[in-house]
Every structure is written in structure tokens, then in C-alpha cells.
Amino acid sequence: MKINKQILITGITGFVGQNLSVYLADDFDVKGITRKGYNGLTYEAFLEGSTPYDVMIHLAGKAHDLKKTSNDNEYYEVNFELTKKLYNQFLQSEAKQFIYISSVKAVVDSIDGILTEDAISNPVSVYGKSKRMAEDYILANLPETKKVYILRPCMIHGPLNKGNLNLLFGLVQKGFPWPLGAFNNQRSFLSVENLCFVIKELLIQETILSGVYNIADDDSISTNELVTLISKSQNKKVRILSLPKNMIVSIAKAGDFLRLPLNLERLHKLTESFVVCNLKIKQAINKPFPVSAKDGLLKTFTSFKM
């Protein structure tokens, strides 16, 4: 029997939106909205009309462009201005819940230690700054009679979507050895199933307080462990080389000038640590996540088995 709540998901045709709509479909009345229109509903039509809903889950946004080809204004128009318009509509409506999917990048682009909700915000990228602007607007206009949640996920992945793990996956899948075994790091990831689980619990448990919540799997994973999981998923032998760090750094420095596949920026991204604390949301929900970090990643990588 369905719960009597009408859920409106922005960006429903995206990776998270597709997974979430299926995850919620058995229990809620789910509707969608996109820029180009979903079942005839665009953002313009929605903002000008009177579409009924009880909860808005705002997924739509301009993703972080790793190739750096996007115009800065695109981030502010989509991640801030659109969010502002949709949130204002929510405040004027009869809806009772607003769930905004932000990002840990709205706080920092890199961190020493573990990222908590209390960390001082200092985003560097335009993506992170635009997400933070949206957060600030929402937090400055919190209603007393409605529930508002800002979720900050780390890198999201799931079947048929590796997130930003494409380079690493491609290297292992082609049989090349991983040459950075000497670098020890830890990173947090987020299975899309765990994200959907958290959102559903926020819809069901009406006593959870409004606020900002980091979202990450329970355990962090090293890049060497990632290589092992990818190898296992593709039935390939694990090949990890522990070359001297000084030699790798020298090659990366040369890569900055010779345009090699490995440069200092890419080396940093491949070997940096970024650990996210999920204690606040776990305590609020008071239930275990359905998928472990390793099982979730293995499920993702196995979905790409050739």
C-alpha cells in the first residue's frame, strides 16, 4: 500500500533520478520534472503552474566538469538560480518537505582528516561555490512549519555508472598494472542504493530534524583496494606496482610540460585522501545502510563486465 505522499523529483532522468524514482515507486506517487520536460512538465511550466506535490527532491544540477570546458555562468544559473526559484516555490506551496542534493564540494575541494558537517566552508571550484550559494540561500530561509534537508554526498556510483572512476577502471580493465601502489590514501564513496535509502527514510521518518547531513558509505577505501575490486569484478589478476614515490613525482612534474597522461594535478587526484563522516545521518536515521562500501563498489564494477 502506497504512502499518501506525492513526490516531485527534479532531474528525474539523470543517474540518481532514475534510480531514486524506481526505488520510491512502490511506496509513493512519484512525478518528475526536467529542463526539457518530463511527461510534459518543464521547470518553466512547473513554476508558472500549480502542480500538486508534498515533497520536492531537488536533484537537478550542473555537474562538476572535469574537462573544464563549461562556462562559469552555467554553474550559477543551474546550481544556484534554479535552486532559488524552486525553493521559493516550495516555500509558497502547501508542500511539507524539501530535500536538496548538494555536494561535499560545497564545503572543501580537499581536506586533511575527516570531513564533518561542522567543517568551515571554503570551496575552491566554481561548482563547489555555486552549490554553497544554494545552500546558504536555503539555510537563510528555513521555515518553521516545514522540513528542509541539505544532503552532501561524496562521489556517487552505481551499476552502469562509475562516477569519476573511469580512468582507473579503464586502466585495470585493459590489463595495465597500477603503478602508484606506494601511495597510501583513503577515500569515501557513496553507493546510489545507500543514497536512495537515506532519502526514503527522510520521507518516512517525519521526526528527523531539518539540517545539513553528509552522506557517505560507512567505510573509506584506498585506491589500491579499488584496483583490487576492479580486478576481481573483471576476473583479472591484481597488478599493483609500488614504484618509488620520488620517481613518480618526477614523472608527474615532467608531465606538466610534456603533456603526459600523468601530471601533478592528476597524481594528486589519484592519490589524495578524502574521508567523509556519515555519523550525523546514521544517528538520525538509526538504521544500518543496506550496502557496504566494498560490496557497493564491486556491484558497480561488475555491471561493466565485458
TrEMBL record:
Q: Which domain of life is it from?
A: Bacteria
Pfam families according to UniProt? Epimerase (PF01370)
Entries under InterPro entries matching the protein: Epimerase_deHydtase (IPR001509), Lipid_A_modif_metabolic_enz (IPR050177), NAD(P)-bd_dom_sf (IPR036291)
Domain NAD-dependent epimerase/dehydratase: from-to ranges: 7-216
Protein name stated in the entry = Nucleoside-diphosphate-sugar epimerase
Specify the species.
Answer: Flavobacterium chungangense
